[in-house]
Amino acid sequence: MTAKVALATSNEGKRAELAPLLEDLDIELVLPDSNLMNEIEEPGLTFIENALIKARAVSAHTQLPAIADDSGLSVNALGGKPGIHSARYAGSPSNAARNNEKLLAALSEVPDEERKASFQCVLVYLRQSDDPVPLVGVGSWAGEILREPRGTQGFGYDPLFFVPGLNRTAAELSTVEKNGISHRARAAEQLLKKLKDDFR
Amino acid sequence: MTAKVALATSNEGKRAELAPLLEDLDIELVLPDSNLMNEIEEPGLTFIENALIKARAVSAHTQLPAIADDSGLSVNALGGKPGIHSARYAGSPSNAARNNEKLLAALSEVPDEERKASFQCVLVYLRQSDDPVPLVGVGSWAGEILREPRGTQGFGYDPLFFVPGLNRTAAELSTVEKNGISHRARAAEQLLKKLKDDFR
């Protein structure tokens, strides 16, 4: 029997990436109301705590197991910022264009060789809202911050995130390409291994 | 240079087990004042959240990186209890003898074949108190709950935790033996792999 699992995100981009990554499992992803997601505060100080807060709220509301993602961009020259504040870096509600502008401004004086950054992703799975032993997958993706956006795919900081090995930004990769190497792909891979014991 | 790392526990048993497990690293473990540890509340709903809360408090107080352990016993017939409440199952302050008595009472009617349980351990490492990407190790250890305590080593629920493969309880194992197979050993092994990038 196909099990229902709630996916605790209202971010279209995350949803579009996660769905194929979780395709191997015999689960039906249920999307919670975006109003619910907007109401969830994220007071955690780590990606994993914020992911757990989101998964727990959605699991309590839907009475289903829940998967949540928390992710962000960590820029070396900014001491790891915007980090857990990536989505709302330029204020609330989250706006990718304004976030990218703020990032470019913050790095305007930073020379090319000091623009290293990484995307971080934590995925969690709670069997129920009070599950004390969540399954966790983590992943990171190394790159550099450009001086202007390139590409139209992906979401968030993708147009500024240049991947030297590919000579392209994350926004110049198709979802399939991005899903081969991204922080989210690696986190999903780890989570998937652990979920397979539960779901097939 | 040997780096100092605070170990966020006032539990002698955990300390005695963790020190040799972390011996491979070029770090000096610093033990915080037990008053500080007693003051830290653990409102988290998962082992990992409670471990992060402890590590964060100790890192903020000592201005050092911090390692914390959160662990507990999950009993199948009790729906996973005492779980994150293992240390204070029979009330505060933590008392192993009273916890064991309460567990035996709760399982008095449960037949032998339904007394399966597991120890769970999460170890976290925070580079600083606001580190958004902690290193995490998790481990579990499967066993069964006896009807009376056996053995004098270890701590906590060890005298009731029977390991079928060894035909002994956790309290009948030396620290060296326990450290070969326990939940804490596996979590430490995972954390160690990740820490080695930072410390040697």
How does this model look, in words?
The structure is a homodimer of 200-residue chains. Chain A has 200 residues and is of the alpha/beta class. Chain A has helices at residues 12-21, 34-39, 47-62, 96-106, 175-181, 183-199; strands at residues 3-8, 27-30, 66-75, 116-126, 135-145, 161-163, 168-169. Chain A has a seven-stranded mixed beta sheet, with helices on both faces. In chain A, helix 1 links the parallel strand 1 and strand 2. The termini of chain A are close together. The mean pLDDT of chain A is 92.
Report strand % of chain A. 15-25%
Q: How confident overall, as mean pLDDT of chain A?
A: 92
State the end-to-end CA separation of chain A: 10 Å
Q: What oligomerization state is this entry in?
A: homodimer
Number of helices of chain A: 6
- Give me the count of strands of chain A: 7
Largest sheet of chain A: 7 strands, mixed
Order of SSEs of chain A? EHEHHEHEEEEHH
Given helix and strand content, the structural type of chain A is alpha/beta
Low-confidence stretches of chain A: none
- Give the overall shape of chain A, derived from the CA principal axes: globular
Biggest sheet strand order of chain A reads 2-1-3-4-5-6-7
Most extensive contact: A-B, 21 and 21 residues
Cα gyration radius of chain A (Å):
17 Å
Estimate the helix proportion of chain A, in percent: 25-40%
